[in-house]
Amino acid sequence: MAGKPVPGSVVTQREQLLEGLRAYGVQYKEFSHRFAAWLGLHSTDAVALLEILAAEERDTPLSPARLSGRISLSPAATTALLNRLEEAGHIVRSRENTDRRVVTLRGSPHIQERADAFFTPLAERLDTLLAEYPPELLNQFETLLSDLRDAMDIQLAQRDPHS
Question: pTM for the full model?
């Protein structure tokens, strides 16, 4: 049986970092649940809406297929979800690509205003916090997060050794 990780070791740092990221993920999920309740939406609908809005903010709007992959829903379930969001006036589906078969998902102006009203206080608090750190450190952290996602993507892409 292996002993406890040595303080300051890579194993200890990995465990502490992943625990911090896990806890942050739990809090992020709680914010999305509160956003859903605030809008009167099912939590899955709110998660999808947040993905659509975030992608649009990054100027990389999602298609229904890409959204389906990001929120781990079947295409049929994603279509039903998008129908609900569109009927509620929260999203707009458009055909912006030269290939008119490609559908682009965008948030409606009113939902962007509501999301801004809900998330701006948190964004301001985070901006104040991040301003306390040197840009070089934040850049290193961004790189670390990207590398962690890449490592997880590689592991997820491998066949399950237990199957």
Answer: 0.79
